[in-house]
Write a structure and sequence with these properties.
2 helices, 4-stranded antiparallel beta sheet, 413 residues, Neuraminidase, Immunoglobulin-like, 9% helix
Protein backbone atom coordinates (compact mmCIF):
# COMPACT_ATOMS: atom_id res chain seq x y z
CA UNK A 1 0.00 0.00 0.00
CA UNK A 2 2.86 2.36 0.73
CA UNK A 3 4.23 1.89 -2.77
CA UNK A 4 0.81 2.60 -4.29
CA UNK A 5 0.42 5.77 -2.26
CA UNK A 6 3.89 6.91 -3.23
CA UNK A 7 3.14 6.42 -6.91
CA UNK A 8 -0.15 8.24 -6.64
CA UNK A 9 1.57 11.06 -4.76
CA UNK A 10 4.17 11.42 -7.51
CA UNK A 11 1.39 11.48 -10.11
CA UNK A 12 -0.34 14.33 -8.32
CA UNK A 13 2.90 16.33 -8.03
CA UNK A 14 3.40 16.08 -11.78
CA UNK A 15 -0.14 17.18 -12.59
CA UNK A 16 0.46 20.72 -11.32
CA UNK A 17 3.27 21.22 -13.85
CA UNK A 18 0.90 20.59 -16.77
CA UNK A 19 -1.29 23.03 -18.64
CA UNK A 20 -5.01 23.12 -17.86
CA UNK A 21 -5.89 21.19 -21.03
CA UNK A 22 -3.19 18.59 -20.50
CA UNK A 23 -4.07 18.30 -16.82
CA UNK A 24 -7.63 17.43 -17.81
CA UNK A 25 -6.32 14.80 -20.23
CA UNK A 26 -3.94 13.37 -17.61
CA UNK A 27 -6.70 13.05 -15.03
CA UNK A 28 -8.89 11.38 -17.64
CA UNK A 29 -6.15 8.88 -18.52
CA UNK A 30 -5.57 8.14 -14.83
CA UNK A 31 -9.30 7.58 -14.28
CA UNK A 32 -9.50 5.39 -17.37
CA UNK A 33 -6.53 3.34 -16.15
CA UNK A 34 -8.13 2.81 -12.74
CA UNK A 35 -11.48 1.78 -14.24
CA UNK A 36 -9.90 -0.54 -16.80
CA UNK A 37 -7.49 -2.14 -14.33
CA UNK A 38 -10.27 -2.75 -11.83
CA UNK A 39 -12.43 -4.43 -14.46
CA UNK A 40 -9.61 -6.64 -15.74
CA UNK A 41 -8.42 -7.65 -12.27
CA UNK A 42 -11.83 -9.07 -11.49
CA UNK A 43 -11.64 -11.53 -14.40
CA UNK A 44 -8.73 -13.61 -13.00
CA UNK A 45 -9.64 -16.13 -10.29
CA UNK A 46 -7.11 -18.33 -8.47
CA UNK A 47 -7.95 -22.05 -8.64
CA UNK A 48 -6.54 -25.22 -7.10
CA UNK A 49 -2.83 -25.42 -7.85
CA UNK A 50 -1.40 -27.91 -10.32
CA UNK A 51 -0.16 -30.81 -8.12
CA UNK A 52 3.55 -30.27 -8.85
CA UNK A 53 5.65 -27.38 -10.25
CA UNK A 54 6.60 -27.40 -13.92
CA UNK A 55 7.13 -25.42 -17.08
CA UNK A 56 6.78 -26.30 -20.78
CA UNK A 57 3.84 -28.67 -20.21
CA UNK A 58 0.94 -29.37 -22.58
CA UNK A 59 -2.80 -29.12 -22.06
CA UNK A 60 -6.09 -29.67 -23.89
CA UNK A 61 -9.78 -30.21 -23.15
CA UNK A 62 -11.96 -33.25 -23.81
CA UNK A 63 -15.67 -33.04 -23.05
CA UNK A 64 -15.99 -31.30 -19.68
CA UNK A 65 -12.47 -31.92 -18.37
CA UNK A 66 -9.07 -30.30 -18.78
CA UNK A 67 -5.93 -32.43 -19.20
CA UNK A 68 -2.41 -31.25 -18.35
CA UNK A 69 0.89 -33.05 -18.23
CA UNK A 70 4.57 -33.24 -18.97
CA UNK A 71 7.04 -30.42 -18.71
CA UNK A 72 10.77 -29.86 -18.79
CA UNK A 73 11.23 -32.29 -15.89
CA UNK A 74 7.92 -34.12 -15.81
CA UNK A 75 6.06 -36.89 -17.60
CA UNK A 76 3.08 -37.14 -15.22
CA UNK A 77 -0.41 -36.50 -16.57
CA UNK A 78 -3.42 -35.02 -14.78
CA UNK A 79 -7.13 -34.39 -15.23
CA UNK A 80 -8.60 -31.12 -13.97
CA UNK A 81 -12.32 -30.92 -13.19
CA UNK A 82 -13.37 -27.24 -13.51
CA UNK A 83 -16.69 -27.84 -11.74
CA UNK A 84 -15.07 -29.40 -8.67
CA UNK A 85 -11.76 -27.51 -8.95
CA UNK A 86 -9.85 -30.75 -8.35
CA UNK A 87 -6.94 -32.61 -9.95
CA UNK A 88 -6.77 -36.39 -10.55
CA UNK A 89 -3.61 -38.34 -11.42
CA UNK A 90 -3.72 -40.33 -14.68
CA UNK A 91 -1.38 -42.63 -16.60
CA UNK A 92 2.02 -41.07 -17.28
CA UNK A 93 2.88 -39.81 -20.76
CA UNK A 94 4.76 -42.65 -22.50
CA UNK A 95 7.71 -42.73 -24.86
CA UNK A 96 10.15 -40.95 -22.53
CA UNK A 97 12.49 -41.80 -19.67
CA UNK A 98 11.78 -38.99 -17.24
CA UNK A 99 10.12 -36.07 -19.03
CA UNK A 100 8.11 -34.79 -21.98
CA UNK A 101 8.85 -31.06 -22.14
CA UNK A 102 8.45 -28.43 -24.89
CA UNK A 103 6.04 -30.78 -26.70
CA UNK A 104 2.86 -30.17 -28.69
CA UNK A 105 -0.59 -31.19 -27.51
CA UNK A 106 -4.12 -31.04 -28.94
CA UNK A 107 -7.48 -32.81 -28.82
CA UNK A 108 -9.70 -33.95 -31.69
CA UNK A 109 -12.91 -36.02 -31.63
CA UNK A 110 -12.72 -36.98 -27.97
CA UNK A 111 -9.06 -38.06 -28.00
CA UNK A 112 -5.97 -36.24 -26.81
CA UNK A 113 -2.59 -36.15 -28.56
CA UNK A 114 0.88 -35.35 -27.23
CA UNK A 115 4.10 -35.56 -29.21
CA UNK A 116 7.55 -34.27 -30.11
CA UNK A 117 9.37 -32.37 -27.35
CA UNK A 118 12.38 -33.26 -25.22
CA UNK A 119 13.00 -36.12 -22.80
CA UNK A 120 15.68 -35.85 -20.12
CA UNK A 121 17.30 -32.76 -21.62
CA UNK A 122 17.30 -30.36 -24.53
CA UNK A 123 19.56 -32.74 -26.52
CA UNK A 124 17.14 -35.68 -26.38
CA UNK A 125 14.35 -34.54 -28.68
CA UNK A 126 11.48 -36.60 -30.10
CA UNK A 127 9.26 -36.89 -33.18
CA UNK A 128 6.77 -39.46 -31.88
CA UNK A 129 3.04 -38.91 -31.33
CA UNK A 130 0.79 -40.55 -28.74
CA UNK A 131 -3.01 -40.69 -28.51
CA UNK A 132 -4.77 -40.55 -25.14
CA UNK A 133 -8.14 -42.25 -24.56
CA UNK A 134 -9.84 -40.57 -21.56
CA UNK A 135 -12.37 -43.38 -21.14
CA UNK A 136 -9.75 -46.12 -20.81
CA UNK A 137 -6.97 -43.90 -19.40
CA UNK A 138 -4.58 -45.45 -21.93
CA UNK A 139 -2.01 -44.24 -24.46
CA UNK A 140 -1.54 -45.56 -28.00
CA UNK A 141 1.42 -44.71 -30.22
CA UNK A 142 0.50 -43.10 -33.53
CA UNK A 143 2.49 -42.25 -36.68
CA UNK A 144 5.70 -40.30 -36.10
CA UNK A 145 6.13 -36.84 -37.54
CA UNK A 146 7.72 -37.49 -40.98
CA UNK A 147 10.53 -35.04 -40.26
CA UNK A 148 13.49 -34.62 -37.89
CA UNK A 149 12.94 -34.78 -34.13
CA UNK A 150 12.42 -31.44 -32.41
CA UNK A 151 11.08 -29.43 -29.51
CA UNK A 152 9.77 -25.85 -29.45
CA UNK A 153 7.26 -26.56 -32.24
CA UNK A 154 3.74 -25.12 -32.32
CA UNK A 155 0.35 -26.67 -33.04
CA UNK A 156 -3.24 -25.63 -33.59
CA UNK A 157 -6.44 -27.44 -34.62
CA UNK A 158 -8.72 -26.48 -37.51
CA UNK A 159 -11.82 -28.62 -37.87
CA UNK A 160 -10.86 -32.28 -37.49
CA UNK A 161 -7.19 -31.78 -38.42
CA UNK A 162 -4.15 -30.72 -36.41
CA UNK A 163 -1.33 -28.59 -37.78
CA UNK A 164 2.24 -28.77 -36.47
CA UNK A 165 5.35 -26.85 -37.48
CA UNK A 166 8.52 -25.02 -36.57
CA UNK A 167 10.75 -25.96 -33.66
CA UNK A 168 14.43 -26.85 -33.37
CA UNK A 169 16.55 -29.98 -33.08
CA UNK A 170 19.18 -31.04 -30.55
CA UNK A 171 21.86 -29.06 -32.40
CA UNK A 172 19.78 -25.89 -32.31
CA UNK A 173 18.84 -26.00 -36.01
CA UNK A 174 15.50 -24.23 -36.57
CA UNK A 175 12.75 -25.46 -38.86
CA UNK A 176 10.04 -23.83 -40.98
CA UNK A 177 8.39 -27.02 -42.24
CA UNK A 178 4.69 -27.45 -41.57
CA UNK A 179 2.43 -30.53 -41.49
CA UNK A 180 -1.23 -31.48 -41.32
CA UNK A 181 -2.17 -34.47 -39.15
CA UNK A 182 -5.38 -36.40 -39.88
CA UNK A 183 -6.38 -38.57 -36.87
CA UNK A 184 -8.96 -40.49 -38.90
CA UNK A 185 -6.25 -41.98 -41.13
CA UNK A 186 -3.31 -41.46 -38.77
CA UNK A 187 -1.37 -39.72 -41.54
CA UNK A 188 0.81 -36.62 -41.91
CA UNK A 189 0.79 -34.36 -44.99
CA UNK A 190 3.45 -31.76 -45.75
CA UNK A 191 2.07 -28.24 -46.25
CA UNK A 192 3.44 -24.85 -47.31
CA UNK A 193 6.52 -23.69 -45.48
CA UNK A 194 6.08 -21.24 -42.62
CA UNK A 195 7.18 -17.73 -43.72
CA UNK A 196 10.17 -17.88 -41.34
CA UNK A 197 12.08 -20.31 -39.13
CA UNK A 198 10.40 -20.17 -35.73
CA UNK A 199 10.36 -21.62 -32.21
CA UNK A 200 7.93 -21.07 -29.34
CA UNK A 201 5.46 -18.66 -31.02
CA UNK A 202 1.94 -17.89 -29.85
CA UNK A 203 -0.30 -20.31 -31.78
CA UNK A 204 -4.10 -20.43 -32.06
CA UNK A 205 -6.96 -20.90 -34.52
CA UNK A 206 -10.09 -18.83 -35.07
CA UNK A 207 -12.91 -19.28 -37.59
CA UNK A 208 -11.20 -21.96 -39.63
CA UNK A 209 -7.80 -20.28 -39.89
CA UNK A 210 -4.60 -20.73 -37.93
CA UNK A 211 -2.31 -18.03 -36.54
CA UNK A 212 1.19 -17.78 -35.16
CA UNK A 213 2.76 -14.65 -33.69
CA UNK A 214 6.04 -13.66 -32.07
CA UNK A 215 8.46 -16.44 -31.09
CA UNK A 216 12.14 -16.54 -31.91
CA UNK A 217 14.25 -16.85 -35.05
CA UNK A 218 17.80 -15.67 -34.31
CA UNK A 219 16.25 -13.41 -31.73
CA UNK A 220 12.70 -12.68 -30.55
CA UNK A 221 10.29 -11.31 -33.19
CA UNK A 222 6.78 -9.82 -33.32
CA UNK A 223 5.61 -11.02 -36.75
CA UNK A 224 2.10 -12.46 -37.08
CA UNK A 225 0.98 -14.87 -39.82
CA UNK A 226 -2.39 -16.36 -40.76
CA UNK A 227 -2.72 -19.81 -42.31
CA UNK A 228 -5.66 -20.68 -44.57
CA UNK A 229 -6.01 -24.48 -44.94
CA UNK A 230 -8.32 -24.12 -47.96
CA UNK A 231 -5.56 -22.46 -50.00
CA UNK A 232 -2.54 -23.76 -48.06
CA UNK A 233 -1.24 -20.18 -47.89
CA UNK A 234 0.30 -17.97 -45.21
CA UNK A 235 -0.55 -14.25 -45.00
CA UNK A 236 1.23 -11.58 -42.97
CA UNK A 237 -0.92 -9.82 -40.37
CA UNK A 238 -0.53 -7.02 -37.83
CA UNK A 239 2.55 -7.48 -35.67
CA UNK A 240 2.33 -8.23 -31.97
CA UNK A 241 2.57 -4.80 -30.24
CA UNK A 242 4.32 -5.86 -27.04
CA UNK A 243 7.98 -6.50 -26.33
CA UNK A 244 9.34 -9.17 -28.71
CA UNK A 245 9.17 -12.54 -26.96
CA UNK A 246 8.95 -16.30 -27.17
CA UNK A 247 7.54 -19.09 -24.96
CA UNK A 248 4.33 -17.18 -24.18
CA UNK A 249 0.78 -18.50 -23.85
CA UNK A 250 -2.25 -18.01 -26.07
CA UNK A 251 -5.93 -18.90 -25.82
CA UNK A 252 -9.13 -17.99 -27.65
CA UNK A 253 -12.48 -16.89 -26.23
CA UNK A 254 -15.41 -15.54 -28.26
CA UNK A 255 -13.30 -15.49 -31.43
CA UNK A 256 -10.74 -13.17 -29.85
CA UNK A 257 -7.19 -14.37 -29.14
CA UNK A 258 -5.40 -13.57 -25.89
CA UNK A 259 -1.59 -13.67 -26.01
CA UNK A 260 0.82 -12.89 -23.22
CA UNK A 261 3.52 -13.90 -20.74
CA UNK A 262 6.71 -15.34 -22.27
CA UNK A 263 10.30 -14.15 -22.17
CA UNK A 264 13.16 -12.60 -24.13
CA UNK A 265 16.88 -13.42 -24.23
CA UNK A 266 16.31 -16.30 -21.81
CA UNK A 267 16.49 -13.80 -18.95
CA UNK A 268 13.43 -11.55 -18.81
CA UNK A 269 9.91 -12.94 -18.15
CA UNK A 270 6.72 -10.97 -18.85
CA UNK A 271 3.19 -10.91 -17.44
CA UNK A 272 1.32 -8.61 -19.86
CA UNK A 273 -1.51 -9.85 -22.08
CA UNK A 274 -2.86 -8.54 -25.39
CA UNK A 275 -6.01 -9.33 -27.35
CA UNK A 276 -6.04 -9.94 -31.09
CA UNK A 277 -9.16 -9.43 -33.22
CA UNK A 278 -8.70 -11.34 -36.50
CA UNK A 279 -11.58 -9.55 -38.21
CA UNK A 280 -10.13 -6.10 -37.56
CA UNK A 281 -6.52 -7.39 -37.58
CA UNK A 282 -5.80 -5.32 -34.47
CA UNK A 283 -4.06 -5.85 -31.15
CA UNK A 284 -5.14 -4.25 -27.87
CA UNK A 285 -3.37 -4.22 -24.52
CA UNK A 286 -5.50 -6.12 -22.01
CA UNK A 287 -3.46 -5.78 -18.82
CA UNK A 288 -1.35 -8.03 -16.63
CA UNK A 289 -1.74 -11.66 -15.70
CA UNK A 290 -2.83 -12.16 -12.08
CA UNK A 291 0.02 -14.58 -11.43
CA UNK A 292 3.78 -14.09 -11.69
CA UNK A 293 5.76 -13.04 -14.74
CA UNK A 294 6.80 -16.33 -16.35
CA UNK A 295 7.61 -18.20 -19.52
CA UNK A 296 6.58 -21.63 -20.79
CA UNK A 297 3.26 -21.36 -19.00
CA UNK A 298 0.31 -23.31 -20.34
CA UNK A 299 -3.16 -22.13 -21.33
CA UNK A 300 -6.39 -23.85 -22.34
CA UNK A 301 -10.06 -22.93 -22.76
CA UNK A 302 -13.21 -24.69 -21.63
CA UNK A 303 -16.82 -23.49 -21.48
CA UNK A 304 -16.08 -19.77 -22.08
CA UNK A 305 -13.32 -19.81 -19.48
CA UNK A 306 -9.56 -19.92 -19.99
CA UNK A 307 -7.15 -21.55 -17.56
CA UNK A 308 -3.55 -20.34 -17.34
CA UNK A 309 -0.73 -21.44 -15.07
CA UNK A 310 2.59 -23.10 -14.26
CA UNK A 311 5.78 -21.78 -15.89
CA UNK A 312 9.23 -20.52 -14.87
CA UNK A 313 10.55 -17.10 -13.89
CA UNK A 314 14.26 -17.75 -14.66
CA UNK A 315 14.99 -17.77 -10.95
CA UNK A 316 14.49 -20.64 -8.56
CA UNK A 317 10.73 -20.80 -9.08
CA UNK A 318 8.80 -23.30 -11.17
CA UNK A 319 5.14 -22.55 -10.59
CA UNK A 320 2.03 -24.54 -9.70
CA UNK A 321 -0.43 -21.63 -9.91
CA UNK A 322 -3.64 -22.10 -11.89
CA UNK A 323 -5.95 -19.20 -12.75
CA UNK A 324 -9.33 -19.01 -14.45
CA UNK A 325 -9.97 -16.11 -16.82
CA UNK A 326 -13.49 -15.15 -17.82
CA UNK A 327 -13.92 -12.63 -20.61
CA UNK A 328 -15.91 -9.59 -19.54
CA UNK A 329 -18.60 -9.36 -22.21
CA UNK A 330 -19.24 -6.01 -20.60
CA UNK A 331 -17.51 -3.72 -18.15
CA UNK A 332 -20.23 -2.33 -15.90
CA UNK A 333 -20.70 -0.13 -12.87
CA UNK A 334 -23.69 0.85 -10.73
CA UNK A 335 -24.85 4.45 -10.98
CA UNK A 336 -25.98 6.49 -7.97
CA UNK A 337 -29.60 5.47 -8.39
CA UNK A 338 -28.59 1.79 -8.49
CA UNK A 339 -29.36 1.44 -12.20
CA UNK A 340 -26.99 -1.07 -13.77
CA UNK A 341 -25.59 -0.47 -17.25
CA UNK A 342 -23.98 -3.06 -19.49
CA UNK A 343 -21.93 -2.46 -22.64
CA UNK A 344 -20.83 -5.03 -25.19
CA UNK A 345 -18.89 -6.13 -27.11
CA UNK A 346 -15.78 -4.79 -25.43
CA UNK A 347 -13.49 -4.47 -27.36
CA UNK A 348 -15.85 -3.25 -30.11
CA UNK A 349 -15.15 -2.97 -33.82
CA UNK A 350 -17.49 0.04 -34.15
CA UNK A 351 -20.96 -0.72 -32.77
CA UNK A 352 -21.44 -0.53 -28.98
CA UNK A 353 -24.60 -1.92 -27.44
CA UNK A 354 -25.66 -0.16 -24.24
CA UNK A 355 -28.21 -1.86 -21.99
CA UNK A 356 -29.80 -0.02 -19.06
CA UNK A 357 -33.04 0.08 -17.10
CA UNK A 358 -32.96 3.89 -17.06
CA UNK A 359 -35.05 5.86 -19.56
CA UNK A 360 -34.13 8.99 -21.55
CA UNK A 361 -30.40 8.42 -21.14
CA UNK A 362 -27.65 10.39 -22.86
CA UNK A 363 -24.49 8.67 -24.08
CA UNK A 364 -21.20 10.55 -24.28
CA UNK A 365 -17.83 9.19 -25.44
CA UNK A 366 -14.51 10.82 -24.50
CA UNK A 367 -11.17 10.06 -26.12
CA UNK A 368 -7.89 9.36 -24.34
CA UNK A 369 -7.17 13.08 -23.70
CA UNK A 370 -10.66 13.78 -22.35
CA UNK A 371 -12.18 15.36 -25.45
CA UNK A 372 -15.86 14.71 -26.17
CA UNK A 373 -16.06 12.79 -29.45
CA UNK A 374 -19.68 11.61 -29.44
CA UNK A 375 -22.84 12.66 -27.63
CA UNK A 376 -26.37 11.49 -28.38
CA UNK A 377 -29.57 10.22 -26.84
CA UNK A 378 -29.46 6.47 -26.29
CA UNK A 379 -31.44 4.87 -29.17
CA UNK A 380 -34.27 2.50 -28.37
CA UNK A 381 -32.27 -0.48 -29.64
CA UNK A 382 -29.30 0.56 -27.49
CA UNK A 383 -26.84 0.50 -30.41
CA UNK A 384 -24.30 3.32 -30.60
CA UNK A 385 -22.53 3.76 -33.94
CA UNK A 386 -18.88 4.57 -33.21
CA UNK A 387 -17.51 3.24 -36.51
CA UNK A 388 -16.14 6.66 -37.47
CA UNK A 389 -13.89 6.77 -34.40
CA UNK A 390 -10.29 5.51 -34.57
CA UNK A 391 -9.13 2.47 -32.63
CA UNK A 392 -8.17 3.22 -29.05
CA UNK A 393 -9.35 3.61 -25.45
CA UNK A 394 -12.48 5.63 -24.66
CA UNK A 395 -14.59 6.50 -21.67
CA UNK A 396 -18.34 6.03 -22.15
CA UNK A 397 -20.58 8.06 -19.84
CA UNK A 398 -24.29 7.32 -19.49
CA UNK A 399 -26.27 10.18 -17.91
CA UNK A 400 -29.83 10.12 -16.60
CA UNK A 401 -31.52 12.61 -14.23
CA UNK A 402 -28.18 14.26 -13.38
CA UNK A 403 -26.70 10.90 -12.39
CA UNK A 404 -24.02 9.14 -14.43
CA UNK A 405 -22.06 5.93 -14.81
CA UNK A 406 -18.73 5.59 -16.61
CA UNK A 407 -17.33 2.60 -18.46
CA UNK A 408 -13.94 2.07 -20.12
CA UNK A 409 -14.42 1.02 -23.74
CA UNK A 410 -11.92 -0.21 -26.32
CA UNK A 411 -12.53 0.28 -30.04
CA UNK A 412 -10.38 -2.08 -32.09
CA UNK A 413 -10.98 -2.05 -35.84
Amino acid sequence: MQVLLKVKSNYMKQIYTLSSRHRKGFLFILALMLITTSAIAQTWTAKANVPSPRDASVTFTINNKVYLGGGAGNKDFWQYDPAADTWTKLADIPGTTTARGFAVGFAISGKGYIGLGADTGIYDVKRDLWQYDPDANTWTQMADLPAPSRDGAFSFVIGDKAYVGGGNDSAGYLYRDFYEYDPSSNTWTSKSLIPEYIIFPFAFSINGEGYISSGAVDTEVTNTYQYDPSTDMWTSKASFPGTPRQAGSAFVLNNIAYCGLGMSSYTTPYKDFYTYDPVADTWTLLGNFAGPASAWTTAVTYNNTAYVGTGWDFGSSFFTDWYAFTVPTAVSQLSADNKQIICYPNPSTGTIHVQTKANESMVTLYNIIGEKVLSEKLPEDGNINASNLPSGQYLLELTNNMQSSKIAITIAK
